[in-house]
């Protein structure tokens, strides 16, 4: 099917078959709402279902049906304000013909209930049909493997289980008036759905993290990446220790730098910001940043920012000037208390909204302009975290003042609470004895730097201290990576299993506590203990921690393991035969990959 964007006009049918080719169920009139490179997503309401027996009925509540392309499952999501209900079918990859999605149902299913209970169902039917339909070993193996993958998605809350995946679709349905129903049972559906969502978010004991994000006008360098890699480690550590987390990382997609770039290049602000936002997402993928839950953009939230500034105005914190509106810092008790003497000299009211004649403009009470930088972040925190205090607010150390001080002032003004329990001001990355900066021209682009080397450098540094990038530092990181590779390959070679005992949890807790020094000390103790004793339990602890750190080399080692295991066994075989010449040939292959 031709790729299209959200809210397509056509309706299609769906047919489910048994393995012997019998059609046993059909859905008529499912609306395509999304068709991209990954999924076809259908919206079902009043669709007609027909059974092989002749029985038929109409869908009476809204649901989504997700068909991942080239996967062995599809997902039916019943949308309910009290919580969504997932029904996952294990199937063949679907085909599309005659305006119909067609697939073979392998009977075994997974249910996920609104309170997050998960259940594998119809196992007996699957086992019966192995005999009745003669499922070959390849089908049985595929089904069991897919069940494990889906359970992993659920455990990590990734893919369609991610908190934003369904809610973003529901939000688009609501905006397009597709969740307005005549039925009394479904009255005010979208309002109830999102009220319940906000209530659940507020009531849950969630570890709440916000990290100031980039202005997307150029490619990011490794200095920009330090904060996000550090915070990703901390958030994943909290997840590992059993905490639910909400990690928000904003995107500034309109500001003076973007407008200047637009004027210089004669390309619209939107095209520039979209281009570099795409580039940033590629870099996040390269650096294996997967813990971010929301990435709100300024241009998508102008109306909310306007309402936020109005709320401050009603409380008497806004002063109107000829060129915009400023926040009255004199009304905030202890404003600037944490500042240095030099910073205190620079304390002044700051713009919430500033008039401008250059670039894209928005309207605030008759003033054409743009929101202030400090208001954007404060609004996102207030809106997404339901006016609660964060557990960690992170950013570069250069944002301490005025940005973070001004965010906190606005939050106190609106909500009478501090914006965060803990500030995390990550140290700068220095190159050629200066702060890495585009204006100085001393940058190393993140896309050009090895992500594993960078992570090693960060883990072996204090979170708040500056890092000086040198050839010696990079070479030292390579030595550590090679050591980790050899240990991890040995772990796989011995067919050991990951360990989640107190020793591993202790080290992960040190990452969660931002105590990277103690983490390294303990990890190196276990590496030394293994090298001395060669005890499998020590290697298991070390490898479990290395796996937690989520290096790129892990994926490559696991991908090539079967091939390299054969090479390893051949090498060992020649050693036993004392055929050292041939043994050295195979040993060299493993050495070249850094595996032994």
Features:
single chain; 596 residues; alpha+beta; FomD barrel-like fold; Rossmann fold; seven-stranded mixed β-barrel; five-stranded antiparallel sheet; 19 helices; 23 strands; globular; disordered N terminus; ATP-binding; protein biosynthesis; metal ion binding; Cysteine--tRNA ligase
Q: What can you see in these coordinates?
A:
It is a single chain. This protein is of the alpha+beta class. It folds into 3 domains: 11-173, Beta Barrel (FomD barrel-like fold), CATH 2.40.380.10; 207-440, HUPs (Rossmann fold), CATH 3.40.50; 470-593, no CATH class. The chain is 44% helix and 21% strand. The chain contains 19 helices and 23 strands. It has a 7-stranded mixed beta barrel. The chain has a 5-stranded antiparallel sheet with strand order 14-15-16-18-17. α5 links the parallel β12 and β13 (244-249). α10 crosses α11 (400-415). The chain is globular and about 80 Å long. Residues 1-8 have low confidence and may be disordered. Its main location: cytoplasm. ATP binds at residue 438. Residues 1-199 are annotated as: Unknown. A motif ('KMSKS' region) lies at residues 435-439. Belongs to the class-I aminoacyl-tRNA synthetase family.
Number of helices: 19
Q: What is the total number of structural domains? A: 3
List the uncertain runs. 1-8
CATH fold name of the largest domain, please?
A: Rossmann fold
User: Which oligomeric form is depicted?
Assistant: single chain
Average of the residue pLDDT scores = 90
What structural category do the secondary elements indicate? alpha+beta
Give the number of DSSP strands: 23
The percentage of residues in β strands lies in 15-25%
């Amino acid at each position: 099917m031709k790729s299209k964007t959200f809210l397509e006009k056509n309706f299609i049918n769906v047919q489910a078959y048994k393995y012997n080719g019998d059609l046993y169920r059909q859905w008529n009139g499912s609306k395509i709402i999304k068709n991209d490179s990954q999924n076809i997503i259908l919206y079902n309401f009043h669709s007609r279902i027909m059974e092989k027996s002749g029985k038929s009925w109409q869908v009476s509540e809204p649901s989504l049906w997700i068909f991942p392309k080239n996967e062995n499952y599809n997902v039916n999501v019943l949308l309910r304000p009290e919580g969504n209900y997932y029904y996952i079918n294990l199937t063949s990859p679907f085909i599309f013909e005659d305006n119909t999605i067609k697939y073979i149902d392998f009977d075994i299913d997974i249910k996920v209930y609104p309170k997050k209970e998960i259940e594998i169902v119809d196992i007996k039917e699957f086992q019966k049909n192995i005999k009745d339909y003669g499922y070959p070993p390849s089908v049985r193996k595929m089904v069991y493997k897919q069940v494990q993958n889906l359970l992993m998605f659920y455990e990590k809350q990734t893919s369609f289980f991610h908190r934003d995946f369904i809610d973003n679709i529901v939000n688009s349905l609501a905006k397009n008036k597709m969740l307005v129903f005549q039925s009394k049972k479904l009255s005010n559906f979208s309002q109830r759905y999102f009220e319940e969502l906000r209530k659940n978010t507020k009531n849950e004991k969630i570890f709440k993290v916000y990290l100031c994000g980039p202005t997307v006008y150029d490619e990011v360098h490794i200095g920009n990446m330090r904060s996000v890699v550090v915070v990703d480690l901390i958030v994943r550590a909290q997840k590992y220790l059993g905490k639910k987390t909400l990690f928000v990382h904003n995107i500034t997609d309109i500001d003076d730098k973007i407008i200047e770039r637009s004027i210089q290049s004669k390309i619209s602000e939107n095209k520039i910001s979209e281009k570099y936002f795409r580039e940033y997402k590629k870099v996040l993928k390269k650096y294996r940043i997967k813990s971010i839950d929301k990435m709100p953009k300024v241009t998508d939230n102008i109306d909310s920012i306007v309402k936020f500034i109005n709320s401050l105005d009603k409380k008497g914190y806004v002063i109107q000037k000829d060129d915009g509106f400023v926040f009255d810092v004199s009304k905030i008790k202890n404003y600037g208390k944490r500042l240095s003497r030099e910073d205190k000299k620079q304390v002044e009211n700051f713009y919430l909204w500033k008039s401008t004649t250059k670039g894209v403009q928005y309207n605030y009470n008759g003033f054409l302009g743009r929101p202030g930088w400090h208001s954007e972040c404060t609004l996102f925190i207030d809106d997404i975290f339901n006016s609660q205090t964060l557990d960690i607010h992170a950013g570069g150390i250069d944002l301490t003042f005025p940005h973070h001080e001004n965010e906190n002032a606005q939050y106190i003004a609106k909500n009478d609470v501090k914006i965060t329990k803990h500030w995390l001001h990550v140290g700068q990355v220095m190159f050629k004895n200066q702060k890495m900066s585009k204006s100085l021209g001393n940058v190393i682009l993140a896309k050009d730097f090895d992500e594993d080397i960078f992570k090693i450098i960060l883990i072996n540094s204090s979170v708040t201290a500056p890092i000086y990038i040198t050839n010696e530092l990079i070479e030292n990181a390579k030595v550590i990576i090679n050591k980790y590779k050899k240990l991890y390959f040995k772990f796989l070679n011995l067919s050991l299993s990951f360990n989640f005992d107190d020793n591993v949890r202790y080290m992960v807790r040190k990452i969660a506590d931002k105590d990277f020094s103690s983490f390294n000390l303990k990890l190196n103790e276990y590496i030394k203990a293994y090298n001395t004793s060669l005890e499998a339990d020590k290697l298991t602890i070390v490898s479990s921690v290395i796996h937690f750190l989520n290096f790129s080399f892990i994926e490559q080692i696991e991908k090539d393991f079967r091939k390299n295991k054969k090479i390893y066994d051949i090498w060992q075989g020649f050693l036993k035969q004392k055929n050292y010449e041939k043994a050295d040939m195979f040993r060299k292959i493993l050495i070249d990959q850094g595996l032994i």
